[in-house]
Amino acid sequence: MTVRTPEEIENERRTVLVNIFATSGSLILFIFGILSMSAGFVVLGSVVLGASVLSLGLMVYGRLSGRIRTVSYLFSALAFMLAIFLVVHGGVKGAGAYFSFPLAIIMVMTGFTSVRFTLTICSLFLSVVALALFGPVDEGLVYPYGADEKMHIMLGLAVLVLLAVFSEWIRLRSYSATLNTHEQLRTDARYDALTKLLNRRGFEEAMAGLPPERFPVVLAILDLDHFKSVNDEHGHEAGDHALRAFARHLRPCVRGGDLLCRWGGEEFLLLITEAGPDEALAVVDDIRIGFARTVLPVGENGLKLTFSAGLSCLQNAGGFEQALVEADESLYRAKDRGRNHLELSEAENTAGEPDDAGLQPVSAAVPRNKDQEPPDILPA
To answer: Within this chain, do residues 207 and 123 fall inside the same structural domain, yes or no?
Structure first.
């Protein structure tokens, strides 16, 4: 399923509004323009026919240029000016003011950006109308409405624009809430709730999105040693704490192009890009040594944990399942060797032996590129 961005959804809404208002509005304006011209109202007919042509022109321009947001603002401005003209001119026997009511609604719907901005435009609109109706202007320029009729016009326009603004505000709030909920659900579906790392689905989606030029890569499975005994001796809360601590230890070891996830239980996957097998082995070995020295605040005296890892080479995203099997087989060999070991499937030999002299890494880690983007991991 293709997920549309908020900008795409908003542009689609504006496109529908402009097309509907331009098509139906231009037809109605054209009919009234012809009727006005035939009845001798030349100025009224000319303005209405001109607005009809402009409406169609804006719709065509929007389709050809794709600048639908700009077109919707211009359409709103057209409705703004035409509504004021109809109020001032009066149309046929003062009926023009009442045709300005739907135009005021169109002005708000097509031009709405924010409540503050739209209220400013509506205030300007009502001020101009009020000045024309009640201000000291030449009565020959404004249709001579009665006092009650002026009040009805002003009250009707004010209520309509306020309702239109309120309606658009409710729509925007509802849309924002829906969008936020949708984004949160997407995040929850891609990230592990305990460690805030990518979960299986998130990892597979992120790996599938890697460009072909990023391959080959190295896939590593990291599995905490004797993790079951942590749960049995200290409780599941201590086990959860250990998993979170391991995730915190892994985060700074991951470069911007790499991927890290909790694959399940005490197993974690690390996808190392821009590194050969030997370099990747050195990176994982540095992580192993650093974590073996970490004392977790579990129990009275603290707790030290280690992990074993199996590594395999991945030539492209399509070979993930096979690479995962090879890395898993390598992990079992590392476990069979006594744990706290690394095993590389391609070479099928062990590396990263625990060094009693001080846990020194087998080789230098891959240099970190600080210009890369941060890894796809939620903040702790």
So the answer is: no
